Fold each of these.
Amino acid sequence: MGTRTPPATSGAADLDGVVRQRLRTLRLAQGMSLNDLAAATHLNASTISRLETGSRRLALDVLAPIARALNTTIDDLVDTSADDGDVVIRPERCELHGVTRWQLSRNRGPNGVNVVKMRLTPLETPPELQVHPGRDWFFVLSGTVKLFLGEREVLVHAGHAADFTTMTPHAFTAHLKPAEMISILDNDGHQAHTA
């Protein structure tokens, strides 16, 4: 009489299903067919299909190349955090050079995007202009933001947004009274505006 493999515990089965669903969802979200992913991982399309459907056991030797090809990590594939910390961001207030900032996003690697809420106060002297690679974008929530862009001074009122190349010398401040804005910065912009 042969030995039977004990059934998977509910927790392990749940994790198995979550990982399989994530693999399929990530592949489809990136517009990849089974053949595309197979070519990127040097695995068979049928192997990947069996992984997604549960016909094949999940193993590190196949998960690692698939995770790389899908621009994720094995840790992210198997993450089952039960608390809301992976979803809810609790921004902390940071004041520097007359600007109050709240980081509203998590930076996810070298090409990450940073979303920051800023409260600006008018300055007595114009701020120092900066240059860095990339683009900056901001949306004014309240008040008016004065954007210094090279030789220009542009007023951006509440409800309006600004989008500009950051290779042009630039800076911003509140115009006449405090202003609040949401800014989306790449890593170069985030470093320049929070230093």
Amino acid sequence: MSDSASGSQLADNAAQTQLYVPSKKIYARATHGLFTNWRWALVWFTQIIFYGLPWLTWNDRQAVLLHLTERKFYIFGWVFWPQDVFFLSVLLIISAYSLFFFTAIAGRLWCGYACPQTVYTEIFLWIERKIEGDHNKQMKLDRAPMSGRKFAIKAAKYAAWGVVALWTGFTLVAYCSPLDELLAEAAGFRFGPWEWFWMLFYAGFTYLMAGVMREQVCKYMCPYARFQSVMLDSDTLVVTYDEARGEPRAPHRKGAKAAGKGDCIDCGICVQVCPTGVDIRKGLQYECIGCAVCIDACNQVMDKIGAPRGLVRFSTENALKKGWTRNEILAHVRRPRTLVYGAVLMAICVAFVWGLATRMPLQVNVIRDRTSLGRKVENGLIENIYQLRIMNMTENPRAFVLAVKGLDGMRIDGEERIELDAVETRSVTLRVLAPANAGKTGANEIFFEVSPGDEPALQLREKTTFFFPLEHTR
């Protein structure tokens, strides 16, 4: 074999074994229609909530504040403490089951309409179109050599992206640090080190993922794209191309379709509008995020050539094979998988709401003083010392009544009423006395009862032990 042939073969082998496919920038074409409008509605809805919540006030404080320094989460009228991590766990379970439930029904709805990656990419693309122009002008600008005009346009776009990213990072930090303090610090750029870190970290990742990487995140980084297939079945609604109606493809104008040809005119607009560059005519692919902008684009083409809409549409694998009507498709939405997911999701949601509704407004921890297990004091009484940590979990000052039960004649020696400010935690030391003949030698089970003075029915009962020393009855 000649050296040139050997070199050619090595080059071919190298091309076949390269690790990465070269990335090609996608210039997504703008479109309009039902699903595009839904996407933008979700963009507005999610971002009004995200950017707006820190500015709302409730009870003279920030309505939603995850105050990490104070270890308190304020969410409108609720105050959550580290001990309430159970509710966060249940909320995460609800989110997971919601993802399973809606994916089983209609595929990647989350990815196409509410995922932060999708939402911020859409915002950054809108900025890009406003500054650089439509997809054709963007391609022309990128191919042009660097000039003063190109530099100014690119600089304006990147600066606009940077402003959005920084404001996003600032808003995120405002959920964890009081907004009024942040605004005061922002006047002189006097943020704390952790505030600087998280603001720049989140801003940097927003800029990188939504502005630079875009669809690469969905295609190569997001794990959901990989395991979504286990949540789909033949009755899941996904974006589909009606091959039986569309093939064979052939260009034609309104009223001029050749005999034996399909409705697809092979214009490629479904690929041009796709944010991940998917050709839906090749079937469902893991890169498809289910945004359905290709449906809007294809429907516009069908309108122009006088063909029925729905060549690309939301349908199911079984519906395409068996020619089901819309009612038949919807009937198969109710199937064992979705019924089980829905039932479990409903049960967890009901339990979550019930837990919030019946959540106690106080918490008590009782610790017996182990340095003094129990000793005989005046009048032949036995004394035990306890440390009570009482948490007022409401935003109103409250008085709490203390009582101790479990042994005949036992009592608290001292103040039996304690007043706490709003969301205050206080530790109190209590001296409990009991007659020497009220219990057996060693540990005896007793209970501390703590109840709000204005709501005696809301009583918290904590178990502990009362210790009688050896030979305590003598």
